Amino acid sequence: MITILGAGVAGLCAATVLSERGFTVQVVDSCSEGDGASWLAGGDAGPVR
Question: Domain segments of the chain: what residues?
Answer without folding.
Answer: 2-32
